[in-house]
């Protein structure tokens, strides 16, 4: 009986534990769900703030762009043909120009307007978000004053056209008409639509009071000053005196604006001083370079450049496709024309480069997402669009892009576009190569991931053919197009080689023992790829020399060919010879190592320390008495002449000989400090290759490499496309954002 009771108690306790565990799991799931929702809302809030701030700062960069574009054009030079070519053709620009010409603005207002535009643009670009919103509220208030002025002028004009000398409010219709004039806004400003298109006039005053944050009753009473003609008319003022009432209202408005500026001016000056002190504090704390990078990130310069260029580009596309009636069959040429018309100043050129970098980064991230690779950028130049952006800027500066006509810009942009596509394909290949070669050794990889990676690799085989074909239909063959064609052929050959190596690795993975001939196949594939690269580079060199002989010598062509010879021919040939030499040395050395028979392997029952597969039939014994698969050790020795397990440096005389007493005595020291092996290897390589000419030594690259890499990592602050957010957590311990003006 006691045993039964104990069993029942155990069952009850198990049930209670299960219920408690279910409850705890439910609570944990709820907590995780709430945390995920909070993170989602935080990210949505951050994105919304970025979009809002970028949109509010947009006019600043647009004003500077327009000022730079038309800085050499006077008001008298603006003709009707220029007006028709402007994208904002739906504005009544002739009336504006007539207004400008009649006031002789050409002699007095040019300098004033230029400095005023620069001042307003700097305010748009540098003010913090809360001050920027306040600035927009002031602009909106000025606009509402203009609306009130227009309504007052319309009312005076309508009363002058009426037949009543004296106003008698003896009927509901008359009272309604003047009452709605007092409280209404007319949209189309016509007498027929006066009663049908209305909004409450007093709402304008209330809105102005809210926007300006007016304190005190007298200030609020002064806002509806343009209602003075209506009040005067309702009080019996003659019709011919209404213009005087309207003029009094205009005078009162100007006095109100001047008084408001007088009262708000000291606060503006105080905020400016505070902003300058904060900027000075930023540079004192972070230094010059880091201070510039902090302000660069806080002001969102790159996002603003991209948003500005996209806005102008969409406006040009709207004019080309809608106003000019271009067909959709001309979309390609329309796109290039839109880019050419948009890019006219260094500002828009920088914006174009940043936009290109963003697009390239998004494509690279999408490729990583499809293939299942990591999306983190370990280096500022690693698939972040930086290379493509710099290529665009250098090519445009070298060719004088900004000083060309639209037709010439279109042709040059097509060339730049294909160069960017070529660089992007190279970046995509670097992404897919790592992922595809790691897939065979990843047992958790799904079939769909294999299929996605193979599909991307096949696209890299096909896309270069289409880009080359379309490029030859648009552009003539010169040194630039020859380099693009060579790069396309190189990417195609590399993609085919990666697919072949993937197939070989898959076959090796399915086999029980390492495949003895796999290293030879991979070696032949790599040699074929390197041979194709060298052949393509030499063809480009031959074509460039023929171009120099046929067309004539130019410094740009000579510089391109010199860089091509150093980077694409000499360095590749040196790397290829080094690869072949190391591989042949590894094969020769591995053949000199003793083999372990089946009996020894069965007695050891050990696995290879390189591939972690059990050694059953074949193994090689190193001079330090370690066992490895022959193919695995051959791959290792082709890279480093050290033992994979203990990092003992192996000289060529050690192969085929027993380990000496000095090796045995130094084995423990090498295990404790593996860097000794690397230092010994570097000394050996330096001694063996002392007669080899190295371009790095010629240009002192090797001595400055560490310093340059540190600078590149610091440049990450200036390039938020690949910024690690954790690196900036120390900017503000309390999570407070930097502001440039003092908060109210």
TrEMBL record:
Transmembrane segments: 107-127, 139-156, 219-236, 245-263, 301-319, 411-429, 449-467, 479-504, 551-570
Domain RING-type: residue ranges: 608-646
Key word NAD present: no
Residue numbers spanned by region Disordered: 657-684, 724-744
SUPFAM superfamilies, per database record: RING/U-box
GO molecular function, one term: zinc ion binding
Comp. bias (Basic and acidic residues): 669-678
The keyword Membrane appears for this protein: yes
Membrane topology value: Multi-pass membrane protein
Subcellular location: Membrane
The entry's keywords: Membrane, Metal-binding, Transmembrane, Transmembrane helix, Zinc, Zinc-finger
Feature: compositional bias, Polar residues: 659-668
GO cellular component, one term: membrane
Annotated GO biological process: ERAD pathway; proteasome-mediated ubiquitin-dependent protein catabolic process
Name of this protein: RING-type domain-containing protein
Organism of provenance: Caenorhabditis remanei
């Amino acid at each position: 009986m006691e045993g039964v009771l104990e069993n029942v108690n155990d069952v009850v306790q198990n049930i209670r534990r299960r219920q408690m565990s279910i409850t705890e799991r439910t609570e944990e799931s709820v907590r995780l769900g709430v945390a995920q929702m909070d993170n989602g809302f935080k990210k949505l809030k951050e994105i919304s703030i970025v979009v809002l701030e970028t949109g509010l700062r947009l006019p600043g960069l647009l004003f500077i762009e327009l000022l730079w574009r038309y800085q050499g054009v006077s008001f008298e030079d603006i003709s009707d043909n220029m007006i028709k070519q402007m994208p904002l053709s739906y504005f009544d620009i002739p009336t504006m120009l007539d207004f400008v010409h009649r006031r002789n603005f050409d002699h007095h207002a040019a300098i004033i307007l230029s400095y005023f535009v620069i001042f307003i643009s700097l305010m748009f670009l540098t003010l913090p978000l809360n001050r920027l919103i306040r600035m927009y509220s002031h602009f909106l208030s000025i606009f509402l004053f203009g609306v009130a002025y227009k309504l007052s002028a319309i009312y005076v004009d309508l009363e002058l056209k009426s037949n009543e000398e004296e106003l008698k409010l003896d009927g509901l219709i008359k009272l309604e008409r003047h009452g709605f004039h007092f409280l209404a806004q007319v949209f189309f400003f016509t007498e027929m639509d006066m009663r049908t298109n209305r909004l409450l006039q007093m709402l304008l005053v209330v809105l102005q009071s809210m926007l300006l944050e007016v304190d005190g009753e007298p200030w609020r009473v002064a806002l509806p000053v343009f209602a003075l003609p209506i009040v005067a008319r309702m009080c019996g003022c003659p019709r011919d005196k209404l213009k005087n009432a309207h003029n009094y209202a205009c005078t009162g408005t100007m006095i109100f604006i001047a008084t408001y500026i007088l009262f708000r001016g000291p606060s503006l000056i105080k905020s400016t001083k505070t902003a300058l002190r904060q900027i000075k504090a930023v540079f004192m704390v972070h230094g010059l370079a880091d201070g510039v990078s902090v302000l660069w990130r806080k002001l969102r310069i790159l996002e603003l450049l991209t948003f500005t260029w996209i806005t102008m580009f969409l406006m040009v596309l709207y004019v080309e496709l809608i106003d000019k009636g271009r067909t959709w069959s001309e979309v390609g040429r329309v796109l290039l024309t839109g880019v050419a018309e948009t890019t006219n100043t260094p500002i828009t050129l920088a914006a174009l480069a940043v936009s290109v970098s963003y697009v390239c980064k998004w494509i690279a991230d999408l490729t990583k997402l499809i293939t299942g690779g990591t999306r983190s950028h370990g280096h500022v130049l690693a698939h972040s669009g930086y290379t493509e952006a710099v290529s665009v800027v250098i090519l445009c500066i070298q060719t004088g892009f900004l000083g060309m006509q639209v037709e010439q810009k279109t042709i040059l942009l097509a060339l730049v576009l294909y160069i960017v596509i070529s660089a992007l394909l190279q970046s995509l290949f670097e992404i897919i190569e790592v992922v595809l070669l790691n897939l065979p050794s990843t047992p958790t990889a799904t079939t769909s991931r294999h299929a996605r990676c193979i599909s991307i690799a096949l696209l890299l085989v096909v896309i270069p053919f289409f880009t080359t074909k379309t490029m030859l239909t648009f552009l003539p063959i010169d040194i630039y197009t020859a380099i693009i064609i060579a790069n396309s052929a190189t990417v195609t050959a590399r993609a085919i080689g990666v697919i072949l190596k993937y197939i070989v690795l898959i076959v090796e993975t399915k086999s029980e023992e390492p495949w003895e001939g796999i290293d030879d196949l991979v070696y032949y594939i790599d040699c074929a790829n390197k041979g194709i690269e060298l052949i393509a580079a030499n063809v480009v060199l031959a074509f460039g020399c023929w171009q120099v002989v046929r067309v004539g010598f130019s410094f740009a062509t000579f510089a391109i060919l010199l860089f091509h010879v150093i980077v694409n021919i000499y360095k590749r040939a040196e790397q290829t010879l080094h690869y072949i030499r190391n591989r042949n040395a590894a094969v020769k050395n591995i053949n000199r190592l003793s083999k372990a028979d089946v009996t020894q392997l069965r007695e050891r029952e050990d696995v290879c320390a390189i591939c972690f597969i059990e050694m059953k039939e074949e193994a090689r014994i190193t001079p330090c008495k370690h066992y490895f698969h022959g193919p695995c050790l051959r791959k290792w020795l082709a890279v480093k002449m050290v033992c994979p397990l203990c990092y003992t440096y192996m000289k060529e005389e050690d192969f085929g000989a027993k380990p000496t007493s000095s090796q045995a005595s130094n084995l423990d020291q090498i295990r404790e400090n593996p860097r000794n092996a690397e230092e010994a290897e570097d000394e050996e390589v330096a001694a063996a290759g002392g007669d080899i000419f190295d371009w790095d030594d010629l240009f002192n690259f090797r001595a400055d490499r560490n310093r340059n890499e540190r600078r590149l990592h610091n440049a990450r602050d200036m390039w938020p496309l690949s910024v690690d957010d954790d690196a900036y957590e120390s900017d503000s311990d309390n999570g407070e954002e930097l502001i440039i003006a003092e908060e109210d």
